[in-house]
Structure formats: structure tokens, C-alpha cells
Amino acid sequence: MKNKEQIMTTCWTIQRRHTVIIIVTTEGRLPPKVDIRVVIAVSITVVSFLQYLHGWSRYNEAVKYALTMPKYRNKAMQRAREEGRLNNLKKGKKSKEELKEEEESILMEVVENSLDIRGGYSKPRIIDVLWLRIVLLPYTLLCYIAWLLRWHWKFTIKREEYGDEEKGYLIRKKMGLSSIQWDAMESAQKDVLFSRQLWIEANYREFKQEQEEDMRVKLAQNNKYKAYRRYMKKGGPGQMSFIEDD
Asked: What is the pLDDT of residues 130-178, one digit of tens each?
């Protein structure tokens, strides 16, 4: 009996020790606490960095595309020759590939300095990255509220006439264009929109009907669209068809 009690006491001691060891080990493996603010800050920083790099990639892509167009490439070649930049190419110690790369680099630089690329492929600005957008958000909201109050005071209360900037804003909003799309639009096309006085609702409705009618005429003359309409009249995707075995 004494031996049996000794054995039971020893087992209980071992069990308690193991229990303590397991608890300590488990508590030691708890994941460390991470400040969520640090995670958010790092995430925003990474997104801002990638956003800026992507902007430069799109801008360089636009410059390279401009060089494939004879109109811009010839202008760049002419300007580079006038400035004497192509005369500095040393043909003796360089291969044709190296000379070609150096010439393309010079032409790209000329295009960047002479061509104003707008829209989604414009030169990226550091102020447009996510970090600065968040930091400047209170200032942006205040500017927007002040702009709304100014608009209401000038054109609702005082009944003043719209300026060119306000007219352009109204036309852009009626057409559903973003500021980037509006800036990328050619001046000649903007002049047509201004000449039609599209900031006036009645004129814009008339213009929109004309555009829709032109689109219907173009689609009616399109063979693929005609085939699609015949297909839909016959029942579209739900129509039943039979295929005979040979």
C-alpha cells in the first residue's frame, strides 16, 4: 500500500510538473502584439511607392509611343539636330546598337521637354501619391467647401454669368468626364463644345440626341451589328437549334 501511494504521489508530481511546463511553453509561444498603426502606415507607404513608380512607367510608355508616330519623331529629330545634340554621337568607338540606344535616349528627352502629355499618362506628381492625399485631405475638404460656397454665392444668389472655367466645369460634368479626361481632350474639340454652349441644359440635350443618332447610324451600317441584331431577333442565346448527323 505504501509503495502504491508513493507511486501515485510521484505520478501526480510529474503530471503537475508537465502541466506547468506545458502552460509556460504555451504562454511563451503567444504571438507578439503588433501596433495596427504601424501596419497601416507601412501599407500606405508601399502603396504610395508603387503608385509613383506606376505613374512613371505609364509616362515613359506614352513618350515611347509618341516616338513611334512619324509626326512627333520627325519634330524631335529636327529639334535635336538644331540643338546639335545628335552631332555629339561618337560613331568610332560604339556599335550600331549603342548608337541607336543613345539616339533614342536623346529623342525621348527632346519629346519630354517639348510635348505636353496629359490625361492618365501625364508626368506623375509627388503630390498625387496616397500618403500626401491623406495628409492634405482636411485642406482639400476645406477648399471644396469654400468652392461650393463661392459657387452658390456668385451664380445662385447674385446671378452672375459663368466664366470659361465654370462653363468648362459644367460641360465636363454633363458629359460625365473626369478632370483627367477633360485635360487630355484636344483644344479643337473643346472649342466645338464651347461653341455649342453645352453648359446650357437644352443645348446639351440636343447635342446628346445628335450623338446618339450618329451612333445608331454607324451601328446600323456595321455588318457585325446587323448580324447581332438578326441573331437576337431569332431568339438570341436561348434559341433552339438542330444539328443533323452526317
From this structure: 999 999 999 999 999 999 999 999 999 999 999 999 999 999 999 988 8
Question: 190 Cβ partners below 8 Å, 6+ apart?
Answer: 168
Contact 44, 131 (CB under 8 A): yes
CB 119 within 8 A of CB 66: no
Question: How far is the C-alpha of 99 from the C-alpha of 96, rounded, in Å?
Answer: 5
Q: Match 535616349 to its residue by C-alpha cell.
A: 105
With contact defined as beta carbons under 8 Å apart, do 167 and 194 qualify?
A: yes
User: What is residue 242's DSSP assignment?
Assistant: -
If one counts every other C-beta atom within 10 angstroms of the C-beta of residue 177, the result is 14
Three-state SS at 241: coil
pTM here is: 0.59
Element (H, E) at 40: helix 36-67
Q: At what angle do helices 164-175 and 201-220 cross, to 10 degrees?
A: 40
- Of the CA atoms within 13 Å of residue 94, those in its CB half-sphere come to 12
**Which string of DSSP letters, residue by residue, matches 89-136?**
---SSS-HHHHHHHHHHHHHHHHHHH----GGGSPP-GGGSHHHHHHT
